[in-house]
Amino acid sequence: MNGLRLIGTGRALPAKIYDNDAMTAFVDTSDEWITSRTGIRQRYFSGEGETTSGLAIEAAKKALDNAGIAPEQIDCVLVATSSGETVMPSMACIVHHALGLRADIPAMDVGAACAGFLYAADMARALLLAHGGHYALVIGAEQMSKLLDMSDRNTCVLFGDGAGACVFALEPDAEYESVFGVRGDMAIVAGGPRREQPMAMEGQAVFRFAVTAIPQSVNALLERSGKTLEEVDWVVCHQANQRIIDASVRRLGVPAEKFYKNLDRYANTSAASIPLALDEMRESGKLTSGMRVIMVGFGAGLTWAGMMIRA
Ligand code: UT7
To answer: Does the model's pTM come out above 0.70?
Structure first.
């Protein structure tokens, strides 16, 4: 099948880390509550002069370097984000200009909240197939801090800022499966684009949804591909809550080590969380060429998406 192979990754983070104790300056909370309910220990929040597109550009440059691909070889650029600094132009256009990509390629943003990176990657594949290209630059970049009400303890401790970027190559024999879902009737995570409409969330309902969506997506990908979970090297879920990942591990009956986790250090970075994880995994040598990876994203919409590729 014409599938995507992951050939390069990069990430970028704001300068400043806020540990759980630092969050007590904003709301009535504690390290004990945040750690035990979520597994989160710290997050990055942007400061003066740091923009979502700045993070996206830095991550993208690193991904191109890592892939050994020149900017002019990129055949489409997609940015998954809910927190760009402008509605127009799209962040993809800002990245396009900063990187000096070719003028004859599609560039656009994708809005599917925390599932956005996988929606964007699937759309990139479709664009490459339709137009005959070979390399896609797909970025997840967020400044969730812009969307948060820092006086709402139900949300402000859960999210963080960051960007991850991937270069994918479309290859004729590469394995590829993807699944998608949406429940537009469940607008239980909502907010933005301005601080006057901060993000609000029915946390427990999202939790229940997530622990069903992850196993369902994984099982659907396995069924379509004819593979078993034993044949999959890694499952990379959207990094929202340690307890969501633990519950999914239990429901699927797999070793917990198969699920990559880094939410303790970044909190929930929405569309950036999966590419951030992929970059860390490649950098540390945990994800090597040929490994089979399942990714699952879920979030506001509600939307969810699963994808199986080989690195
Ligand atoms: O990207 C996808 C989007 N979101 C998610 O994936 C979120 C999914 N949901 C969750 O991760 C969890 O439901 C939460 C972490 C949001 C909440 O955990 P929970 O175990 O479901 O807690 P809860 O909502 O049942 O709240 C328990 C208590 C409440 O107090 P009372 O009513 O029992 O007195 C809350 O007011 O914890 C209180 N609480 C806090 N206490 C200290 C809520 N937030 C905080 C806080 N610090 N930050």
So the answer is: yes
Q: Which of 171, 198, 231 is the last residue of a domain?
A: 171
Which of 93, 114, 156, 237 is catalytic? The answer is: 114
Q: For ligand 1, which residues put their CB under 6 angstroms from it?
A: 29, 33-34, 37-38, 114, 153-154, 157, 189, 201, 203-204, 206-207, 210, 240-241, 268, 299
Q: Tokens 């969501």 map to which residue?
A: 244
Q: Does residue 98 sit in the same domain as residue 232?
A: no
| pLDDT single digits (tens) 21-63 | 999 999 999 999 999 999 999 999 999 999 999 999 999 999 9
Measured in degrees and rounded to the nearest 5, phi and psi for residue 154 equal: -70, -20
For residue 303, what is the enclosing H or E element?
A: strand 303-310
Q: Is 134 a catalytic residue?
A: no
Question: Of the residues 21, 23, 37, 206, which should be mutated to test ligand 1's pocket, given the most ligand atoms within 8 Å of the CB?
Answer: 37
Contact between 60 and 116 (Cβ < 8 Å)? no
Domain match, 79 and 205 both: no
What is the CA(39)–ligand 1 centre distance, in A? 12
Indicate the residue among 171, 206, 238 that finishes a domain. 171
